[in-house]
Amino acid sequence: MKGLIAILSTLTREEKQEFLLYLKRKNRRTDVKNEKLFKLIDAGKTEGLDITLYGKPARNSFHALCKRLQDTLIDFVASKSFAGETSEELEILKLLLASRIFFEKKQYNVAIKTLEKAEKMALPLELYSILNEIYHTKIQYAHLSAKWVLREVIVASELNMELYQQDFRLNRAYAVIKSRLRESANASVQEIVQNTFSEFRIELNEALTYKSLFQLMELMATAAKLQSDFYSISPFVLELYTIVKKKSGMKNKHRYYHLNILNLLAVAQFRNKRFEASMKFTTQLELEMGRVNTYDYKRFSEKLATLKALNYNYTGKPTEALQILNGFKGQSLDILLLTAMCLFQQNRFSEAYQLIKDLNHTDVFYEKKMGWIWVVKKNLIDILLLTELDKLDLVLLRLSRFKRKFSKLLRARGEERVLTFVNLISKYYEYPKQVETQEFKNEVENSFEWIGPDQEDIFVMSFYAWLKAKMEGENLYGITLKLVGHI
């Protein structure tokens, strides 16, 4: 059941509709339960499904149904994958297999041409593992071709093996870095990466594949997000992008990774409050998206809308930001939460609260789907909105629940300042006039460990802006723009 829910969560609305059609084609009976089960899970219903479907408890039958539906989902996802990005890789494997069959059947000329075609296709894609098999076959049959010089084939094979070994070492290092970051949530990302690279003898150079460069950049961005520290990783990310630019001739062969890299760069620059640079990468992303198929365009449309809206919102263009967010056609929890935040900053509290109310699943559900950071942000915005709307009972209830649910997690992650912020919200709500006193301002100053406007994360600043606006009796949005350096 968990695997089924996890796979379903990766599908877009259009893919879910495609899958239902896919199911209908596979089903032979009209009264089928797999479609009903899919629709129920998609609607967020996970309890008592066996009774809903069978009219009585039927755990064994329900388990078998879940297994069949999961297998069909995997088959559907795999089929779509083969129809998309991996089609070239699949074509190369077919060519390699065909060449070996031709060699065995003594059709040497067509075998040689087929193998050469496979090699020519695999080289720009940096498919080192497949190239190993291609060179293995070339060495085996080199005596049958007048064009192939055995020594040259062996040299090419050895060079490819070195690249393959580096890629293999990098993959292991990637796994080790992820493990070490998980074990030491507050450790320096830069130090962990540098130490692990030294341990596995990895150098940052053009020999790294497009996929490896993307994985490293994604790893850094994930760690930075968890620690709310994009400032420290910025030099490393830009160094990786320098390598990406040197391989620009290959971006058409790795368009999916290239789009992801542009997105990560735009995000990193935004989180560091470098809005002009972020918009530059966002514009590049939009330009490159215009060159991909409809499926990939849809995959990145949410990221593009989010980036454009964020950059507009924090550069004094809230109307444009909300137009983009309201114009987004798909279903997106990130877009919904961002819309609520933008409305909140414009003092449109009732509208923002209505959006938050629409998030009616449990925090456990949203944490599985979006991660704990998203859930914490959602709860904080909820508390601030209820405070502004002066809903006494709900404010006290939410504050108490927040401390009970998140205190342990936030302390473990080194994010005590979130708890400090929540305590200050409590004080403001109980004694609103006190917030403008010097005593309260001193308490705020002494409560946080300030790391400077350049280093501080933009979302951390955004929450603090609410408190500062109350202390100084100023407009929230204006204070927010001041803090992030736009005014």
- Per DSSP, the total helix count is 25
- The global form is globular
Low-confidence stretches: none
Rg (CA only): 27 Å
Class by helix and strand content? mainly alpha
Note the topology.
Elements: H1 2-9, H2 13-26, H3 33-42, H4 49-54, H5 59-82, H6 87-104, H7 108-122, H8 128-141, H9 150-183, H10 189-199, H11 210-227, H12 234-246, H13 255-271, H14 275-289, H15 294-313, H16 318-327, H17 333-345, H18 349-357, H19 363-370, H20 372-388, H21 392-412, H22 416-430, H23 438-447, H24 458-472, H25 476-483
Helix pairs in contact: 1-5, 3-5, 6-7, 6-8, 7-8, 8-9, 9-10, 9-11, 11-12, 11-13, 12-13, 13-14, 13-15, 14-15, 15-16, 15-17, 16-17, 17-18, 17-20, 18-20, 19-20, 20-21, 21-22, 24-25
Summarize, please.
This protein has 487 residues and is mainly alpha-helical. 75% of the residues lie in helices and 0% in strands.
Overview of the molecule:
The protein has 487 residues and is mainly α. 75% of the residues lie in helices and 0% in strands. The protein is built from 25 helices and no strands. Helix 17 runs antiparallel to helix 18 and helix 18 packs across helix 20. It starts with a helix and ends with a helix.
